[in-house]
Amino acid sequence: MVVARKAMRECPKKVASLIDLANLPSTLREFAGQSQMSHLSFFIRVWSHIKSNNLQDPNNKNIVNCDDKLKNILLGKSQVELAELPMLIKLHFPKAPK
């Protein structure tokens, strides 16, 4: 919680962009089952999908083996590294105009 408060003080706009509701494009809507969701909530939904469907590679936990549902939102890739995940999800959440 201390980290979240510090981030809120130092970069309030960045934190707000993660928690503000956004209209989801159709591919994300199908995955999430909702029409609006925050960037952070969507990332958490993707992570819980990975964990509940046991999609992490058993030999290398830094690799995610994508099922059809994940391929639709992760640019059709069959495998992604965990480090790539935030960037690939961020592509679906364009910056709001100032």
UniProtKB/TrEMBL annotation:
Domain of life: Eukaryota
InterPro entries recorded: SWIB_domain (IPR019835), SWIB_MDM2_dom_sf (IPR036885), SWIB_MDM2_domain (IPR003121)
Annotated ranges, domain DM2: 17-95
A UniProt-annotated Pfam family: SWIB
PANTHER family from the UniProt entry: SWI/SNF-RELATED MATRIX-ASSOCIATED ACTIN-DEPENDENT REGULATOR OF CHROMATIN SUBFAMILY D
Annotated protein name in UniProt: Upstream activation factor subunit UAF30
Organism in which the protein naturally occurs: Phoenix dactylifera (Date palm)
Lineage: Eukaryota, Viridiplantae, Streptophyta, Embryophyta, Tracheophyta
